[in-house]
Design a protein that fits this description.
By secondary structure, the protein is mainly α. It has five helices and no strands.
Length: 124
């Protein structure tokens, strides 16, 4: 789970930085995925410190992911406007959609991991 958190956090940081550079470094809001990614990386770092901190770090990461995904929904709902060319800020919509998809996948895999661990299954 820590590896998954590190990968997701890294992908979000990359998404935010690329969006910021691609938008001409005009708006700091393009870095929102990067901020979320940094929070996930911090949670993974905390979780990797000891077995006792692992569960706290991963629960924290899942809560951050859930809140960020819910925050991105507003822009994701504007995705059809990107396709018909009427979107006010298409780059923001696309970036939010990428963040949303990454976080939903992370949440699904994270919840499955917790459930498997609770059942006593081997978690890979």
């Amino acid at each position: 789970m820590i590896t998954l958190t590190n990968w997701t956090g890294g992908l979000l940081v990359a998404t935010g930085v690329i969006a910021y550079i691609a938008s001409g470094a005009v708006s700091v809001t393009a870095l929102i995925p990067a901020f979320v990614g940094v929070l996930l990386l911090i949670a993974a770092f905390v979780g990797a410190r000891s077995d006792g901190a692992r569960q706290l770090g991963m629960i924290t990461a899942l809560v951050v992911a859930l809140l960020a995904a819910l925050g991105a929904v507003m822009n994701v709902l504007k995705l059809p406007a990107v396709f018909d060319g009427t979107a006010e800020r298409p780059a923001a919509v696309v970036t939010s959609t990428i963040m949303f998809v990454l976080l939903v996948i992370y949440l699904i895999l994270g919840i499955r991991s917790f459930l498997a661990e609770r059942r006593g299954d081997k978690v890979g």
